[in-house]
Amino acid sequence: MTTFVHEGDLPADALAGASAVAVDSETMGLRLGRDPLCVVQLSDGNGDAHVVKLDRSTYDAPNLKRLLTDPAVTKIFHFGRFDIAMFWLHLGVVTAPVYCTKIASKLARTYTDRHGLKDVSRELLGVDMSKAQQSSDWGAAKLSDDQVAYAASDVLHLHALRTRLDQMLVRERRDHFARACFEFLPHRALLDVAGWEDADIFAHT
Q1: How far is CA 48 from CA 37, 152, 156, in A?
Q2: Which of 6, 14, 50, 113 has the most beta carbons within 10 angstroms of its beta carbon?
Q3: Strand-by-strand arrangement of the 3-7 sheet
């Protein structure tokens, strides 16, 4: 496994030819509109990861933006709702098409309420992920080796999780629900940005 660290943008030839790319991001916090986007990490599922430290003064990352909006590439997330909203706020792009392993887990693994990436990876893949760097300073001038390793770990297993969860969704005859949710997910993220993040728009009250 190799982890490549890039400043400002993804190289033009990185991840070329991939039909699906795992994506995650690191921010200075979890509040939309307050906390900036700092890092985006990606993997094509072949064992390598690309960690992009964004230039927060411009967010000028044309290659990354092109990939996020490429209709021929499925972007795989775990809780993509937040990342997609952040990408719209800071990069100005609507990410699509998408797949979210957290949504897939909630539809397929109804025997548990533990749908965090660490829990799902441990059960379905036998991978024990460390979350020690989750709350570290992602806005630092230079990322530490531990931060880079953590960022990479969050995308290296998403392709395998997608495969396992798809098998479960088909088995439980819920794959059509999952596809509909994934199609709606970018719109849900835009509703969050527009101020409906805490509202159930389908509720009666």
Answers
A1: 22, 8, 7
A2: 50
A3: 3-7, 49-53, 37-43, 20-27, 74-77, 98-100
> How confident is the model over 97-111, as pLDDT tens digits?
999 999 999 999 999
Which amino acid, one-letter code, is at 51?
A: V
Domain 3-195 has CATH 3.90.1150.10: no
Cβ distance 169 to 178 under 8 Å? Answer: yes
Q: Tell me how long the chain is.
A: 205
Cα separation, 182 vs 184, in Å, equals: 5
CB 100 within 8 A of CB 22: no
**How far is Cα 167 from Cα 138, in angstroms, rounded to an integer?**
35
Within 10 angstroms of residue 118's Cβ, the number of other Cβ atoms is 16
Whether residue 97 is preceded by a cis peptide bond, meaning omega within 30 degrees of 0, is yes
pLDDT in tens, 87-96: 999 999 999 9
* Spatial separation of the C-alpha atoms in residues 155 and 44, rounded to whole Å: 9
